[in-house]
Amino acid sequence: MNDINQLSLISKSNIKLSEFLESEMMLSNRKAREYFKKRKILVNGKYESRSSMLKSGDRISVVLEEETFDELPFQMNISVIYEDEYYMAVEKPAGLSMFKSENNDEISFSSVVANLFVKRGIKRKVRFINRLDKFTSGVVLVAKNDIAHSAMATQWNSGHKEYLLAVKGEVNENFDIGISLKYDDISKKYIKANHGKDTKTKYFPLGSKDGATLLKAILITEKTHQIRAQMSDLGLPLLGDALYGEECSHRQALHSYSISILHPFLKRDLVIQGDLPNDFIEILEEYDLYKFLTL
To answer: How does strand 212-219 pair with strand 160-168?
Structure first.
């Protein structure tokens, strides 16, 4: 890996520096001007003006500023399943909120990832590309700096995201759901509404047994509680979902299984797939659904 305090790319053609920053580093004109003003943009280790012409093979670097963490780092063993100089993919366990709330002293996932940053000498804020509910487990992609975050965010909707879920009720055919959801202050849930946020998901049942079904879901949109609210609206609540279904002795049966997306800097497909956590496997085994897993 390269210098953790710089974001660097190699020019593959003769191009003006300002154009390279926009097309390859995906820096806005405003952001680029800020970096030029602070003399934070280097070509082969030396400061150059935005009108400079690059040659193929030139190394363009943005010197990254140090930042303070939003939350104090906390040591917890979690799996890092992918990492390069721009991003890392980690597996979030069920039971951790992404961020700490004002009136809650619980450990957050942000604090756990901040500790990974400390171990790597990264002195910048934790920036999540995607977020999961507290009791949802699975793959979370993290940007190591603000430039990497902005670049991935611009193309995030074009990515392919798969979830696994188990619901109460039997389903035998593939189906799509496209409904509008709006937050309801009284029930504290997202419900179907005429003037809500549009959501769409493709669902594929993998197998049913004794009133429960294991499904794969592919997100077309990515809204808060999207899968949970859609399943509830169909009368197929997630197993273990106390808010949209029934209280249960186990966590909710929802897991972010894989993410596939074009890497904005390396220009190749980034395919990230995590392992199923033991507590999710236990749910599938309890309802005799594990045998339908064909991933």
So the answer is: antiparallel
